[in-house]
Specification:
heterodimer, A: 401 residues, mainly alpha, 2 domains, 16 helices, 71% helix, B: 256 residues, alpha+beta, Alpha-Beta Plaits, 3-stranded mixed sheet, two-stranded antiparallel sheet, 7 helices, 20% strand
């Protein structure tokens, strides 16, 4: 690809990508309009599986949005100079992905037209309510942080702004995880480990997204990432992926230990059809073990495209894990009468099934379209490309610090 | 099939006779000005009726006691009465997407084969998880313990449905074209049993209680030591479903 040498071709390709992203977004919005008009009857969601595919997309985007900001935090808060040049792109991606995730959640509401009600009515005991405060706060703080990074006059303030953004993003992901962690009734949730698990998931998924976007931008500009920086980032991704696996194991092992949760674990891990398949095949093998091999086995790690492939698999694994967590957790019946065999006209005691329909998948993809278009336009109009002064970094000893 | 229907008709007739009696004998109409009247509901249940605009009393805690020994497995008179009273006519193809404010559950203890049948609906918790999690405050508990959804500020996020331990809530999945004017419902909102609040506020019993042919459902004020329900609960062993969650529910069961 020689786009950098051919501005006209480069411009044409940019507009092509922007139109493509815009088109996916418009299709997603049209799907939301259809759902709004016809009702959720046109989705696979029902009175037991009340959150479906849109929520899988939205929660991935919201969790990864806070995680992608970590790249900036490593530079600003933890003083790793190599990551400093990556901070603006990290901030842009965080804003684009959060906006996309929130758009999906909002458009999936039964009454999306009442968004103003959600913003003007606050219930302090609701984790969702707190999230309504945390999201705009994130936009504001990351916006200011980006300003301090990109405006020379504001540059002296980037450290406190970066620290504030880092703390806020931890709060935000705690809030997202606690949406599930605070649900007392369902076997799949009601666990304090979910909030820290979501934080570590955000580290891995956000970094994976960042590495893919960085790779695409470098390819676009005929640049290559310095092998040492590539190696540092891939090792960090490996650490995060392993840490997510640890938390997921702790979550399932504690559930297996509690007698009242064993039936649920048996379902999710062994007998639940698509759910064990996605958990073991999608998340554990493709989303965790293969990326770890690609990252840490020297022969594989040196292969061209191995890091990109590992990052893409981490994202695939994330979707599998979220599908199992969100849908599997609802498909399993509520235990209203423990120890009893239950039947009713409302499908009590029955394992539900959920098949997402086209409109809800399109709405989710529309969210990806929003994040993609916002990022593509952002990197086009402002200076977000991470550029490394290798000689300076090496002489100051920052390549390995 | 005929029996429950007959009983529904029976209960409908009883309801009509009761309402007619209230209208004929119990309504005291005070003239405030020419053409403007303050209508007061009186009669046998006047002690619990309240005028429009008057807040629900915090001294009252409405509750229900269900005797599962009297509840027959095939009977769904309570469900039919609820649907009629609250204007629930389901036309949705996938039954999992339809509204069920009250449902009959059949239970079997696998250890000894003992069976039970019982109606399940919103348990009107003292500490309702749906109210805790609702981002806008649309899910709310009235001072008299009735848990409701404010249709005007429900945004349809379904978080309350995730939180409810009893699967008591339904989401309206498609546009509605028939409604009972006293029971507002709407597409995209969550709904559940209201204890027939529109009837309770007039001093009447919930439709399901009135319709039960076996008298298995008893409705009343849990806070009033002289009420039938409070006396039965004080005298006999009753159960709160998922008592481990310490929600202090308003609906109690006997015999399970």
């Amino acid at each position: 690809m020689q786009l950098a040498q051919n501005p006209r071709a480069e411009e044409r390709n940019f507009y092509l990508l922007a139109v493509l992203g815009g088109l996916v977004t418009v299709i997603g919005l049209a799907a939301a309009l259809y759902m709004e008009h016809a009702g959720h009857v046109v989705t696979g969601m029902n009175n037991q599986v009340v959150w479906g595919m849109p929520h899988v997309f939205a929660i991935f985007l919201i969790v990864a949005a806070s995680g992608v900001l970590n790249v900036a935090s490593i530079g600003s808060v933890f003083g790793k100079v190599v990551y400093k040049s990556r901070a603006p792109l990290s901030g842009l991606l965080a804003l684009a992905m959060l906006a996309a995730g929130l758009a999906i959640i909002m458009l999936d509401l039964g009454r999306a037209d009442r968004l103003i009600v959600a913003m003007t009515h606050f219930n302090p005991t609701s984790m969702f309510g707190w999230n309504v405060i945390l999201y705009p706060g994130f936009f504001a703080i990351v916006g200011i942080y980006l300003w301090t990074l990109m405006d020379r006059k504001m540059n002296p303030y980037y450290k406190p702004a970066g620290l504030a953004a880092f703390i806020w993003r931890l709060l935000l992901t705690t809030g997202t995880g606690s949406i599930f962690g605070f649900l007392v009734a369902r076997q799949a949730y009601q666990s304090a480990v979910i909030a820290p698990m979501f934080i570590i998931m955000s580290f891995a998924w956000g970094l994976a997204v960042f590495m893919i976007v960085q790779k695409a931008m470098y390819a676009w500009n005929d640049m290559t990432l310095h092998p040492q920086i590539r190696s540092r980032m891939k090792n960090l991704l490996g650490t995060f992926v392993a840490a997510v696996f640890y938390f997921v194991m702790v979550y399932h092992l504690t559930n297996l230990y509690f007698a009242k949760q064993t039936a649920f674990e048996q379902f999710i891990l062994l007998s639940g059809g698509i759910f064990p398949l996605l958990f073991w095949g999608g998340y554990v093998v493709l989303g965790t073990l293969v990326p770890l091999l690609l990252i840490y086995v020297p022969n594989l790690a040196s292969l061209r495209g191995s890091v990109f492939f590992a990052a893409a698999l981490v994202i695939l694994g994330a979707f599998c894990l979220l599908f199992v967590f969100i849908i599997g957790g609802q498909v399993f019946p509520l235990e209203i009468f423990p120890g009893m065999e239950v039947s009713s006209s409302f499908f009590d005691g029955k394992i539900d099934s959920y098949a997402p329909t086209l409109p809800e998948i399109l709405l989710g993809l529309g969210g990806i379209g929003i994040a993609f278009t916002a990022t593509a336009v952002g990197v086009r109009v402002l200076k977000f490309l991470p550029q490394d002064d290798i000689a300076k970094l090496e002489s100051a000893g920052h390549m390995l610090d | 099939m005929n029996e429950p229907q007959d009983k529904v008709q029976d209960s409908g007739r009883r309801g009509f006779i009761g309402a007619a009696a209230a209208a004929g004998a119990g309504l005291g109409v005070a003239a405030l000005a020419p053409g403007l009247h303050l209508i007061e509901v009186a009669g046998a249940t006047s002690a619990t009726a309240r005028a429009a605009g008057e807040p629900a009393p915090s001294t009252v805690r409405w509750g229900m006691l269900i005797d599962t020994a009297k509840c027959a497995s095939g009977c769904d008179a309570c469900v039919q009465a609820c649907n009629t009273e609250n204007g629930i006519v389901e036309t949705v193809k996938d039954a999992r997407q339809g509204s069920q404010w009250i449902r009959k559950i059949d239970l079997k203890d696998p250890k000894n084969g003992r069976t039970h049948s019982l109606p399940m609906m919103c348990q009107h918790c003292e500490n309702p998880p749906c109210v805790d999690v609702c981002p806008t405050g649309a899910s709310m508990k009235r001072a008299d313990g009735i848990v409701l959804v404010d249709r005007h500020i429900c945004i349809g996020c379904r978080y309350c449905m995730m939180a409810c331990p009893y699967k008591a809530r339904s989401f309206v999945h498609q546009p509605l074209d028939t409604q009972n004017p006293e029971v507002p419902r709407g597409i995209g909102c969550v709904e559940s049993c209201t204890f027939c609040v529109q009837r309770v506020d007039k001093g009447m019993q919930p439709a399901c209680v009135e319709a039960c042919p076996e008298g298995a459902m008893l409705f009343g004020d849990l806070n009033d030591p002289n009420s039938g329900i409070a006396q039965r609960i004080a005298r006999e062993a009753t159960t709160q479903v998922r008592a481990d969650l310490k929600l202090n529910v308003g609906v109690r069961y006997q015999g399970i």
